[in-house]
Write a structure and sequence with these properties.
about 150 residues, alpha/beta, 5-stranded parallel sheet, 5 strands
Length: about 150
């Protein structure tokens, strides 16, 4: 296992900065990646985005074998993908579900996350700054877990 933190982003997040700025702001995914790298300190970051459910699941499988922790913004798959939920169930280390918007203040279709019950923690509604906050929190969770082992 490595010390890498996997940050996995689902569909349409490649359009951040252009997509519905009134909901998601004007920060781009490249900006967010920079913020995450800065927040990670000694932990290497593996930062990825895909519009494919299959690819996202494959990355969770990869992370299960090698990562110290996962931050995942499943985007629309949050509400539809039992397969992604099942892959996250297999991840044995700290994990955070992340959403830029507060999904509970949006339309009712966005209120029921399939992922929330299988991750360590959920962060929602902090905008792009939720990402570096999630990175800092996950780094602390990983360090706490690693200290238990040593």
């Amino acid at each position: 296992m490595s010390n890498a933190i996997y940050i996995l982003n689902g569909p349409n997040l490649n359009r951040l900065g252009k997509r519905e700025p009134e909901i998601y702001g004007t920060t781009t995914l490249a900006d967010i990646e920079s913020m995450c790298n800065e927040a990670a300190g000694k932990f290497p970051i593996v930062f990825r985005q895909t519009n494919s459910e299959t690819q996202l699941i494959e990355w969770v499988h990869e992370a299960t074998d090698v990562a110290a922790g996962i931050i995942i913004n499943p985007a629309a798959y949050t509400f539809t993908s039992m397969a992604l939920m099942d892959s996250l169930k297999m991840f044995p280390r700290p994990s955070i579900e992340l959403h830029i918007s507060n999904i509970h203040r949006r339309e009712p279709i966005y209120h029921k996350s399939l992922m929330s019950g299988v991750v360590t923690s959920v962060i929602a509604g902090l905008g792009a700054m939720g990402y570096p906050i999630a990175v800092q929190a996950l780094c602390r969770l990983v360090e706490k877990e690693q200290n238990k082992i040593s």
